[in-house]
Amino acid sequence: AVGVSDRVTTRTEMRRIYKVPISRRFCSFGGYRRRKQLKVEYDKDESVTPVKIEHWESPDWKKQLECIREMRSSRDAPVDNMGAKTCYDTEAPAHVRRFQVLVSLMLSSQTKDQVTAAAMQKLRAHGCTVENILTTDDEALGKLIYPVGFWRTKVKYLKLTSAMLQKEFGGDIPDSVEGLVRLPGVGPKMAHLAMDIAWDQVSGIGVDTHVHRISNRLGWLKKPTKNPEETRKALEEWLPRELWSEINWLLVGFGQQVCLPVNPLCSVCLNQHSCPSAHKISPTKRPKAGSPRSPNPTSSFTTKTEPEQESPVKHERTKREPLPAPVSPTAQRRRLKSKVKH
User: Domain HhH-GPD spans what residues (predicted)?
Assistant: First the structure.
């Protein structure tokens, strides 16, 4: 028979003896009792939505962009026919085409598209390749690109860039923004446009003076910017990436035809009712009369004519007899009376 001292200790007695939690009590059949693992499940609250990081954007930018697209639908601005996308030789090898795109962008700084296109035509006829640029002397190269803005400085940049491309990139242009901005005379705007046109890769927004000016006028920036690079960073913070390539082409042509730097044509702009700057751009101040900048009153109304058209008229006037002096009515009557008497 089992004695009283040999009987199994119950849980209640163990609690009294050890006065420790059940999970740490020693069982009579050996070892500590293992704590039971509980699985806790929480009810899913379907009403909770993930937190979205809101970014600033202009309230009317979509409507304004559609209006600009409508105004640019004719594609007849200088950038459409003479921009960097049209200045390279389509039949040249790929690396030569990319180099010509870069050259046209370098020449376009502070220069109208018409002047850039004319310079590129002369360069292509001469041979717009890395090798030809390096073998052409500075004076001849200057005559080819004249009268682009700062043409003397650009001659140096073209020579230095061509030498760098031949030495480090085998005659081709870099395929990254970081590599492009290392080239002499190439800034962020040119680099992003070169990536888009030459490499067909959108790396950023190409912001020139037109894009910078119009973005500030339309209120597309959280706060006014002072230079194109600040405008680029501000636009890229909220403008959808799929519009980065199109926005340069749209705004440049729009700035060349409607939203002019001086005296913009707000009366014909489709955004005149939503643009915060509409009809507020003051016209250019006319210089005071007598100041060095004031125009000559006689020269402001004269029209220029070709010498070939001007010379025959002058000869005709010299051959004609001088007009008779005006005669008063009294003198005319006296002459008639004298003729009748004779």
Answer: 107-257
- Which residue in 158, 185, 194 sits closest to 83, CA to CA? 194
Question: Smallest Cα–Cα separation from 237: which of 221, 249, 219?
Answer: 221
Could you tell me the CATH number of the domain that includes residue 189?
1.10.340.30
Which one is catalytic: 44, 52, 189, 233? 189
Is 145 found in the same domain as 106?
Answer: yes
Domains held by the chain: number:
2
Q: Mind listing the pLDDT tens digit of every residue in the chain (342 residues)?
A: 455 555 555 666 655 655 555 455 445 445 555 555 556 565 555 555 555 556 789 999 999 999 999 999 999 999 999 999 999 999 999 999 999 999 999 999 999 999 999 999 999 999 999 999 999 999 999 999 999 999 999 999 999 999 999 999 999 999 999 999 999 999 999 999 999 999 999 999 999 999 999 999 999 999 999 999 999 999 999 999 999 999 999 999 999 999 999 999 999 999 999 999 999 875 554 444 444 444 443 333 333 333 444 333 334 344 444 545 555 556 665 665 565 555
Give domain status of residue 193, yes or no.
Answer: yes
pTM of full prediction above 0.90: no
Same domain, residue pair 82 and 193: yes
Helix, strand and coil content of the chain, in percent to the nearest 5, comes to 50, 0, 50
H/E element, 98: helix 94-108
71 and 82 in a single domain? The answer is no
Q: Is residue 122 a part of any domain in this protein? A: yes
Residues 90 and 168 in one domain: yes
> Catalytic residue at 189?
yes
Query: Is 238 a member of any domain?
Result: no
| Distance in angstroms (rounded) separating the CA atoms of residues 145 and 156 | 12
Task: Report the length, in residues, of the chain.
Answer: 342
CATH number of domain containing 217 = 1.10.1670.10
> 86, 89, 91, 110: which is closest to 99 by C-alpha?
89
